[in-house]
Amino acid sequence: MGRSRTVSAVGFAAMVVVSAAALSACDGGGSAGKGSRTEFVAGADGVSTVPKGERRLPNELRGDTLQGKHLDVADLKGKIVVINVWGSTCPPCRAEAPLFSKVARETRAKGVAFVGIDTRDASRTAGLAFEANHGVTYPSLYDPVGKLVLYGFPRGSLNPQAIPSTIVLDREGKIAARALQPLSGERLHKMIDPLIGEK
Asked: Which domains occur in the chain, in start order?
């Protein structure tokens, strides 16, 4: 029994290391191409998109926010959901945060919801300071060991691979677009606006 627990602990620790390595770059770099199950198109602007009929649901994306409230992204079905993966020590994350807050305000009435995933901070204090300093008013799930990032997206889907990463879900809750680099407000609109117009 003790050995089994030790093996499980070692296995979990290994997964955390893999997750941290996957998100080690703070420059948003990453490659796009064809997933094992989902065909997606990588645009010249660094945004990858999935045709409507080939989109997939994410796995569970739920937990406690930095403020300690429970949040389940699945409950936002019916809205377009912009998921931004960030960490408070990441300079590109700090640069894009005020722009994301602005676009969140601009698109709220059009049925767009924003959710952050703070996946780098060892305590909530740094994440809360980040939100306050950059005017972030939408909730962020607190994911210090990268569990949501590692398990929240199916293999072969448009999953986050660095910070900052941005994933957009359509109104059916399916993964529609991804960027693995910092975004301007204009480029963020280019990810969201086509989904707002979808029927």
From this structure: 2-196 (3.40.30.10)
